[in-house]
Amino acid sequence: MESSILPTMIRLRASANSFLSQFEPLAIVVVPIVSFLIARVLQSFIQVIQERGLKATIIGFFMTLVKLVPGVKKHIDAEKQKIVDKLQSSGKSLRGDWKTELPNTGLGTRVLEQMKDFKQKDPAWQGKCSGTVYIGGNESEGHFSLINEACSMFAHTNPLHLDVFKSVVRFEAEVVAMTGALFGSKEKASGGEICGNMTSGGTESILLAVKSSRDYMRAKKNITCPEMIIPVSAHSAYDKACQYFKIKLWRVPVNKEFQADVKAIKKYINKNTIMIVGSAPGFPHGIIDPIEELGELAFSYGICLHVDLCLGGFVLPFARKLGYPIPPFDFTVQGVTSISADVHKYGLAPKGTSIVLYRNHEIRKVTSLLITEWSGGLYVSPTIAGSRPGSLVAGAWAAMLSLGQEGYLEHTREIMEASKRIQKGVKEIPELFIVGRPDMTIVAFASNIIDIFEVNDILSSKGWHLNPLQRPNR
């Protein structure tokens, strides 16, 4: 029987080979294409996992599948619209009797009485707000009075007009120079060309640093499709910058210490990369990224490195002098090309004052706008804003000079000690734990036992306004 089956199998195999051979030319073309497409899909899937994490990727994939079920997407969209409608209606109720047009007769000085009445209805924020106001304690009242007087004195000035308001122009130059000195301008390693401008806040400083990096790298490497790599802990201002300036953004997960993962960032660097970012410290957890390692990486690839010192700019230099183990974070690190630092945070200046600094004039000059053909004459602007409030520049100058080195050292000593007391208190609560190892004054805490958002709601009801974090929830 076996002898009769064998010839049959041979004939069938021959027939099959003959049939398949007809498709061989097609297979030569199709198989590589299919293989390429499968490889790209797998690469994209792996990339998404690297960006968002395995858990978030699986949840996202599951939600996509759920939305394919008839009626589900429509229901989700309807629920979203309900939330939007609720927010809009609550906004209208909040406005209540808000004025919508000018009064026929002006109130004169009586307007101050109304302002005082409105101010009294604001919650008491002194010492109870996180990430909002950075001065409190017994000395705050006198410092506020000094700043208010300085701002009032220069309330109608504008540093855009260099020839008219020479005083505030000088104030800005000196604030920039004094801040640059804190970040290494006097040290040989920095190159000694540090320059910059005052801005309206950390977001504008970051926007300018990103734009400068984009334009600088376009001139240096002819990069026309720019990309930027940042850790997930970096501020949302970078998302805004990328939307404004048409830059592709890669957000990379942090390491187990909640720091920027240098190896992960390196994997994303390509021919279109213009810059990477580090924070000192990051806003969510108060942890300093490995700036030295990021500097080495940026320098080796010839790309820009921006250090976000908006929180730490007026603490870290003084904390180091007080003996705290602060790692290198400024222009003394090779590879750092720009820095942002807020004077209106721990610099104790009026709200609306920040600084963007560049390693040299070559990087800075691509930011300044120079219009020579306008019928209104020559127009030069080094920041996003044209006209700027000279009062805030004067207020920052007054704050820095009134406090001096000794004032900032004392202030830093107090807030660093307060941070240690907070950490000690959190550790004494069994249900809570501290996220990572805070380097400065920001302390993030969480729980694996209780709903941390519910804890935040209870604190808010008692007048404590803290910043809730997410991914992971903190």
UniProtKB/TrEMBL annotation:
<comment type="pathway">
    <text>Lipid metabolism; sphingolipid metabolism.</text>
</comment>
<dbReference type="GO" id="GO:0019752">
    <property type="term" value="P:carboxylic acid metabolic process"/>
</dbReference>
<feature type="modified residue" description="N6-(pyridoxal phosphate)lysine">
    <location>
        <position position="345"/>
    </location>
</feature>
<dbReference type="InterPro" id="IPR002129">
    <property type="entry name" value="PyrdxlP-dep_de-COase"/>
</dbReference>
<comment type="pathway">
    <text>Sphingolipid metabolism.</text>
</comment>
<dbReference type="GO" id="GO:0005789">
    <property type="term" value="C:endoplasmic reticulum membrane"/>
</dbReference>
<dbReference type="InterPro" id="IPR050477">
    <property type="entry name" value="GrpII_AminoAcid_Decarb"/>
</dbReference>
<keyword id="KW-1133">Transmembrane helix</keyword>
<dbReference type="InterPro" id="IPR015424">
    <property type="entry name" value="PyrdxlP-dep_Trfase"/>
</dbReference>
<dbReference type="GO" id="GO:0030170">
    <property type="term" value="F:pyridoxal phosphate binding"/>
</dbReference>
<keyword id="KW-0472">Membrane</keyword>
<keyword id="KW-0456">Lyase</keyword>
<keyword id="KW-0256">Endoplasmic reticulum</keyword>
<keyword id="KW-0663">Pyridoxal phosphate</keyword>
<keyword id="KW-0443">Lipid metabolism</keyword>
<protein>
    <recommendedName>
        <fullName>sphinganine-1-phosphate aldolase</fullName>
        <ecNumber>4.1.2.27</ecNumber>
    </recommendedName>
</protein>
<dbReference type="InterPro" id="IPR015421">
    <property type="entry name" value="PyrdxlP-dep_Trfase_major"/>
</dbReference>
<dbReference type="GO" id="GO:0008117">
    <property type="term" value="F:sphinganine-1-phosphate aldolase activity"/>
</dbReference>
<dbReference type="InterPro" id="IPR015422">
    <property type="entry name" value="PyrdxlP-dep_Trfase_small"/>
</dbReference>
<dbReference type="Pfam" id="PF00282">
    <property type="entry name" value="Pyridoxal_deC"/>
</dbReference>
<keyword id="KW-0746">Sphingolipid metabolism</keyword>
<dbReference type="GO" id="GO:0030149">
    <property type="term" value="P:sphingolipid catabolic process"/>
</dbReference>
<keyword id="KW-0812">Transmembrane</keyword>
<comment type="similarity">
    <text>Belongs to the group II decarboxylase family. Sphingosine-1-phosphate lyase subfamily.</text>
</comment>
